[in-house]
Design brief:
Low-confidence stretches: none
Shape: globular
Radius of gyration: 20 Å
Mean pLDDT: 84
Strand content: 25-35%
Oligomer: single chain
Helix content: under 10%
Distance between the termini: 23 Å
Number of strands: 9
Length: about 180
């Protein structure tokens, strides 16, 4: 898929503002003395974004909608959080910025905790897109475990939700440099 589109930028320190760009396909087509065919191949289709509705999220004390978020200025979720707040949504793309003024741009971690409580039963696919470490626990069971440095990756878990039944959820994430959650 990157043959037809010139990708000159990445996350973090690889960002470059180019004056002009020629894709690999365009360069080959201009130089080749033969007809060059092209097929997309793996196009990295992203699943349709369907963020958990805030009404289905409950804080650990079950008093408000959303998840408790604890932010740490280290990648180990260690020590006292530099910020604790309620997050109504789980849809982030910080793009090399900080989640909050108190939180480092790199080398930070977050623990989201609370409950999912849907109004109707359903089977759904819980998926995460993360650049660096991600762990997800449902009812204290580790269901997604990709706790290492990596580029953007999708992880999924089939989740059976029961109507009006609370299921504990904990999401842990760390960012060591560049990229997004």
């Amino acid at each position: 898929p990157n043959a037809k589109t010139c990708r000159t930028n990445g996350g973090g320190s690889s960002h470059v503002d180019q004056v002009y760009a020629i894709s690999p396909l365009e360069g080959i087509q201009k130089r080749a003395d033969i007809k060059v065919s092209y097929a997309v191949g793996d196009n990295f289709i992203v699943p349709e974004k369907n963020v958990i509705k805030p009404a289905y999220l409950l804080t650990p004390d079950k008093k408000e909608n959303g998840l408790k978020a604890e932010y740490f200025n280290n990648v180990d979720l260690a020590g006292k959080p530099v910020l604790t707040r309620i997050e109504k949504s789980l849809d982030y793309a910080w793009d090399n910025t900080s989640p909050a003024p108190e939180v480092s741009i790199n080398n930070f971690s977050i623990r989201f905790s609370g409950f999912i409580k849907p109004d109707k039963a359903s089977e759904c696919t819980l998926y995460t897109v993360s650049d660096d470490g991600i762990r997800v626990y449902i009812d204290d069971k580790l269901v997604i475990n990709n706790w290492n440095n990596h580029g953007p990756l999708y992880d999924t878990y089939k989740l059976n939700l029961k109507a009006r039944k609370e299921q504990k959820i904990v999401i842990e994430y760390f960012q060591s440099g560049g990229g997004e959650i």
